[in-house]
Design goal:
Layout lengths: L1 E2 L4 E7 L2 E6 L3 E5 L7 E6 L12 E6 L5 E7 L2 E6 L4 E4 L17 E4 L2 E7 L2 E8 L2 E6 L14 E8 L4 E7 L8 E3 L1 E5 L4 E3 L6 E3 L6 E7 L2 E7 L4 E6 L19 E2 L2
Antiparallel strand pairs: 1-5, 2-3, 3-4, 4-5, 6-7, 7-8, 8-9, 10-11, 11-12, 12-13, 14-15, 15-17, 16-19, 17-18, 20-21, 21-22, 22-23
């Protein structure tokens, strides 16, 4: 079945095909990615009244250690059975969690684990080990953050081979509105650290924000897009220094979106 223009929420590449999930929680596949070339596959069995902006696709291990498609949803991750074209709920489920933002990540595969956002400020680390799914709560909390920053919320994920990055910003929908200093937190496998930058004062309830890691001839760079439309970047090679936050790093002059 070919579908011309499904409204996709996310994409992932697996088994030499492009897979996309749409606002109706329907999975599609394509060998080219061209419009009209998508094959309709199974629908994630979610309740129809769930917010349809929250689905994220990942490729992570199944119980046999083989890579498979995972979909993170409002109630936790589902796993796709490609042989039977069917979605199954994973062993890890969460209470209904509504925190929809378009175009940001709700988790990231980092090293041998899948890190998933499970609340405004909650992150769980899922590790498949010998057929057993190990779950750890690695949420940024005391002593990583401060009590005055309780309105912070997770807005995006990015990673290099050594570090996981999480953008913390104003909690969308917070009432009354408060001014929050955005921070990028860094996970080094042992705990969270507050980056020396970038920072920006924003009011909760403003537009979403995002981060992305790019590897170029100058090394790893972390790009940050703030709600005003500005983009900043910083070279991440300094993170190999010890201790993690020993050097003050200056961001580039603000530049508009290209």
């Amino acid at each position: 079945v070919d579908v011309a223009t499904p409204l996709f929420l996310d994409f992932v590449v697996w088994d030499n095909r492009i897979y996309g999930i749409d606002t109706g929680f329907i999975l599609y596949s394509s060998t080219t990615g061209n419009s009209g070339s998508s094959t309709t596959l199974a629908t994630i069995p979610l309740e129809a009244d769930l917010d349809n902006e929250f689905v994220d696709l990942f490729v992570y291990d199944d119980t046999n250690g083989e890579p498979i498609i995972w979909a993170h949803t409002h109630v936790g991750p589902y796993i796709y059975d490609a042989v039977n074209d069917k979605w199954f709920r994973s062993r890890f489920q969460i209470p209904y969690f509504r925190y929809a933002r378009r175009n940001q990540r709700y988790g990231h595969v980092f090293q041998d684990s899948l890190f998933l956002q499970t609340g405004p400020r909650q992150i769980h680390k899922l590790t498949m080990s010998g057929g057993t799914l190990l779950v750890d709560d690695v949420s940024p909390a005391y002593p990583d953050l401060f009590s005055s920053q309780t309105q912070w919320a997770i807005h995006d994920f990015a990673a290099t081979s050594k570090h996981l990055f999480v953008l913390m910003s104003g909690h969308i929908g917070a009432s009354p509105a408060v001014t929050i200093t955005q921070r990028v937190l860094i996970w080094n496998g042992r705990g969270w650290h507050v980056s020396t930058g970038p920072t920006a004062n924003v009011t909760s309830g403003t537009s979403s924000h995002s981060i992305v890691v790019v590897n170029n001839s100058s090394g790893y760079r972390l790009y940050k897009h703030i709600y005003t439309g500005d983009i900043y970047w910083i070279n991440l090679d300094h993170l190999d220094q010890n201790p993690l936050n020993s050097t003050v790093i200056t961001y580039t002059t603000v530049a508009g979106i290209v």
